[in-house]
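FYI - complex with zinc ion, inputs then prediction.
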Amino acid sequence: MGEEETKREPRKYLGIYFECCNVYGRVYQNKDKTAYSGFCPRCMRRVSIKVGEGGTNQRFFKAY
Ligand SMILES: [Zn+2]
């Protein structure tokens, strides 16, 4: 909570839990900065998370 370890990262990302395969991974912000999108590292299932109007406070998401 409140950690800023990602500050130096060139692209913002979120940690995400892929429920399909029971693994954690990362999804990166798209170039329009409107959403985060990525793939499950195991089954390559595509996920995308929209960035809300005020951004999002959550650091971890679940992909269903
Ligand atoms: Zn998966």
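The longest strand covers residues 23-29. The mean pLDDT is 79.
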